[in-house]
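Encode chain A's predicted structure.
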Amino acid sequence: MKKRLTAVIFTLFCIGNIVAQNISGVVYDSKKEPLTGVSVMIKGTTQGTATDLDGKFTISNLADASKATLVFNFIGYKTVEKAIGSNTSFIITMEEDAKSLEEVVVIGYGTVKKKDLTTAVSSVRGDAVANRPLVSAAQALQGMAAGVQVTENSGKPGGGITVRVRGTTSINANNEPLYVIDGIPTSDTKNLSVADIESMQVLKDASSAAIYGSRAANGVVLITTKQGKAGTSKVSVSTYYGLAELPKKLDVLNSTQYIALMEEMGYDVSSLSNSINTDWQDEVYRTATTYNTQVAFSGGTEKSHYYVSLGMLNQQGIIDPTAFKRHNIKVNLDQEVKKWLKIGTNIAWSKLKSNDVTDNANVAKGGVVLGALTTPPTLTIYNADGSFTANPYQAGWENPVAAMKGSTNESNSNQFLGNIYAEITFAKDLKFKSSLSLENNDYAYNSFTDPYLTSNGRSYSGIGIAQTKKDITWLIENTLNYRFKIGKKQSLDLLGGVTQQKYDYNETYQQKSGYSSAAITTLDGASTTISNTTDAAQWSMVSFIGRAAYDYAGKYLLTASIRRDGSSRFGPNNRWGTFPSVSVGWRISDENFMAKTKSFLDDMKIRAGYGLVGNQPSDYYAYDAKETAGGAYPFPEGAISSISISTSGNDNLKWETTSQLNGGIDASMFNSRVNLSLDSYYKKTKDLIIEKTVSAQTGFTSQYANIGNVRNMGIEISLNTRNLIGKFKWNTDLYFGLNRNKVINLNGATYYTGYIYERDNASIVKEGQPIGAFYGYISEGVDPSTGMLTYKTDEDGNNLQTIIGSAQPKFTYGLTNSFSYKNVDLSIFLQGVQGNDVLNATRIETEGMENYKNQSTAVLRRWTQAGDVTDIPAAVAGSTDNSQVSTRFIEDGSFLRVKAVTLSYNLQNSFIKKANIGSVKLYVTGQNLLTFTHYSGYDPELSLGGTSSDAQTANAALGIDYGTFPQPRTIIFGMNIEF
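Encoded structure for chain A:
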């Protein structure tokens, strides 16, 4: 009996060893340094783990281990497979993979290996910007892609971003790139959480972007979001909390100095008291909070994958009550239904809420930023009756707190972006894909001005505004892809397809006044209608696409594409546009005569490409005559409204077309430790679509026409190096872009924009000048005898107005250094712009000394008597002669900014392992920590035009600071957890 029991126990022990065996080991690199985070999986299963800080791993309770195989994966290293057999302990050495160029890059309607690219494409990894407080994906491109200039137009939460890929190409049409999120074209990225981004590719030259035809004149940004991976199920939680503040204050006069200035200008100061000394910047700016939380679930099998995330962002602005809130959901699913059929969907939904205040305006127009600088310090915030105080000399000029709190400006929007697709594999290399995409935006704006607290509100007995917008875009795409080999060395990739797109837009706008109280803020509480309008528009487009990519032995590469677009925005004479491209690549490193370079040169490729892309007018009915509803005519049957034609049509209006020639070199050296890309380009846009003024004798006011050419040319450098790769790691990424913009021809016409209140237009579009040129007078200093500013004159003795500067930078750059030692990581990101001018129109308000506004302390050195030698003219009440747009207010806008510094710590302890937590990262990030600049204003990074809805102003009125909302300095504390 005992023998029998012993045999049973021995048998069970042996079976237990077979069923549940522990496998452990350690993973090193070629220098015998431990590798952290290496994926160790049992081949063909979902069971696995990752190496710890010492490179060690353990897989417990492995069934039937002797028949299993371990698979070791780590980015930048060759995959290693080891059969377990009778072994229970392993020492693994992983070699660096010099073929990192095998990385797959997303391009239009497909993918390609990075090493086989024949076009200019910049890539940005999602993890490179994951730990920064970014609202928009467009922000993530700043300083991270050569040739891409990103300007944050203001520091408002969720504020507008201006992105220019290789310069400005158009004057009246759109200059923003096309964004394609998981294959869905869109113009806005604020609805997408940066934490959901896997990678971004910027198609910069025409040969890469031509497959998108008329939508690609300004480049294309392809955004790929995260997907679930087979064999792993993860729960990821990321959260951060932060504080934001004004980086610096501007010095203005105190009460005593202000009273002295007013008295000098001849105003009655008997009612002013220097016992009150309000610092309006302290009253306006606050320490704001920001927090963000996102939870993501991902995983899958070999046949299905899922990624689902939910996020919430709440970002306060440094001016109360500005704020931006977002709730977002992202869902990516795909399923292999049959071996020949795959279906999937990509969905993004977001709910956005913004609270706004007026900036880029002076105090007379309710501008809060300029109000904080120009409101007299002799005022308190409130009157005795609880109403807001106003300038004693001008009752309509209320203090900035009134502008902040006396009215509400709130917008809400729901955005949906999604598609559903099916992919059919007819044969091994022949695939058909059909997708249906939908973008839907519902927007509502509501504003209410209190009928009692503010002067403006009292004059109208309150003002209410209600605006709603709805737009919906449908897109159907069908493509057929055939990839096949020709013999042993040649391959051909063919793509063909057809797309159909339709857009519908509706808007209502109502404005009322006459509120009896502030108890009811909706329009129902108002009695008088000021405005009541509706608007509707639609456009559609049909496109045919084709592409062929030829590869001979990986050495000689050729890609050609064509797209033909038919758009309803053009008349029947020029409705269709054709946009071809061709690019070639030569892997010169594979040639026999380069054999001696193999010791250090991993790969070297020379590229060249040429192509055409197009642009459409911003006006959906630009080619057609405009009908305007006029007054009502009385008839016996009743009044009938009239309709008149105000704008002449132009059936011959045609596409703006941009041609671009690109040449480049890609090189990878020293076992992929140095990667370099050099590009040069020349692009020219012709047949600019401009709304020109026509003679009144025609009976019309304007007409759209094709007028003129714009040229951009430049150089780009991308350099990525792995400087140290041992225990202490150091990587460097450098991006440099130089662009020269010039208006070549406008048929002799000149256009002005960028109006400064009570002065003149500050920007000019003129032949021979760059878009964004400043126009004004040339200051020749203060006349010591009169105290008046003198200007350069022409031959007739008149003050000369001419080009006085340019907002176009000479070059832009970004530099990131990343350091890692054991479980500590440090990243330092520097971003800069060099050689651009800024028109500091804020100084026109704070150094003009022509009315009752408070002024900068710079006016303390103003001219006061004959013989004074100074750079600040005399104070002259009621005269703007000393404060016209001139070189006096042109400043160097160059800057170098410590854009982001992130210090992180990866927790590794026994509790985390026992709790089955994969990883925990704690980090702190500083954004906009330091700015090195000679600019005297709040912030040199700005664009008055970027906040305008008028296309010409948005494109040409660059680099103007007229009370722009400054960018804050932000510190966030965050944590990322993965289960």
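The mean pLDDT is 90.
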